[in-house]
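Person: I have long wanted to understand how a fold can be written as tokens. Underneath my words sits a plain record pairing an amino acid chain with its backbone structure tokens. Those tokens are not coordinates but codes from a learned vocabulary of shapes. I should like you to check that the lines agree and flag anything odd. The protein I mean follows directly.
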Amino acid sequence: MIFLDSTVLTDYFNGKTNWHVEVLNSILGSELVVIVDYVLTEVIQVFSSDKDFQKAKTILLSFSCFDIGGKELAIKSANNFRLLKKKGVTVRKTIDVIIATFCIAKKLTLLHNNKDFEPFEKYLNLKVYKN
């Protein structure tokens, strides 16, 4: 199971060419890909055209979509943020902390294009898709 971060999906919908998008194109239909509700929001909120919004929403809703959150994950996320802070790392976005913690807890491999996930890989054993 591959978790798709919004950074890869945004590149995909913007027509960018990088190895992350190439991987996404190669795994569609052959691997189980998943997102969470926050990623769904992050990606589709930026479409100004109703047509593009509906198209992106339809594509994203074809993936398995988990509801994320709850007290247990919130506490694990806060603990992970604090652990990284003690190591001198400040993650810029809380959503990245939550996503990384979710992937760690569910043992999901994360496909991303975001350097903020690197400390989670280095210190907390986040599994990431490698090119």
User: Anything to note?
Assistant: The longest helix spans residues 71-86. The chain has seven helices and four strands. The helical segments are 6-13, 19-27, 37-44, 50-61, 71-86, 94-106, 118-124.
